[in-house]
Amino acid sequence: MINMEELTGKHVDYLNKVINNKQKKRRTVLEKIKPYITSRYAKYQSKKSTLEDINASEIPLDVPSDKINKKYSLIHMYDSQEQYAREYLKEMKELLKEGIICPYCGLTESKQIDHFLPKSKFPEFSLYLPNMIVICSDCNKSKDNIAIDTTTNTRYVLNPYHDLDIYKYDFIECEIIPPYEASKFKIKICDDLTSTQKMLCLEHIKTVEIEKKIITLWRNYFDELSRRLKKNYKKNKNKYTDKEMMENFKEIIIDEIDTKNIEKNIIHKSLFLGCANNQALLKYWLTIFKD
Ligand SMILES: [Zn+2]
Predict the structure, then answer these.
(1) What residues contact residue 113 under an 8 Å CB cut-off, 6+ apart?
(2) Ligand 1 centroid – CA 192 distance (Å)
């Protein structure tokens, strides 16, 4: 996961460079609102894990009264097709480590920059690096503009830079419920978290549709896992008692976590642990292999 320290300071450089490179009319507008932008940066910095307390933007977000609209100018700092802006974007993606595992779902490779506070509602943060997180396209689609509700000060998504207290745990626990060929899943949050943290995690799971991802994963792995366990059963059925055989199944599944290199992947891991610790499921396999 990216370290917040790596981002410190750079955003003001980007802001200055982008503003200085704009054409005169737009530059004048941006220069005028620059003190507001930097004061908002400072606010963001001070809120850290209480990002939901950042109040709504004071930049008028509705119909422009001037020919050069402030909100648009701010968003345009990021979206601009000018060559220098594209170069910044490339640099930012490198800095933000494009290609790491998506910190929202912990499953897919990150390819897109998400503005944690969406630029449509918080345009002053469009170029602010600590507001940018590289995530996968699925999560980007699911999250859309709903990270924070400024009317109720409620946050619906975890922030990988600020919620380190949560991210240090494998916070998702997954219980597999029969029928196993087309399972349902009960998702629980790790007991070491506070009730507020648990609530936020549950909102996060709902927002980025983690359950849907678990269902797909299970669909992909169920047959493969069944085949492996069956092979093992046939080889060892005369050697082990039922209880030992189930222990053996458990070891094979735990072993998958290492061989598939999914130690850092919280969904994968929770699914396999949920599988290995599910006595009823291990017994189910034993019974169908016997038939
Ligand atoms: Zn994702």
Answers:
(1) 89, 92, 93, 96, 132, 133, 134, 135
(2) 24
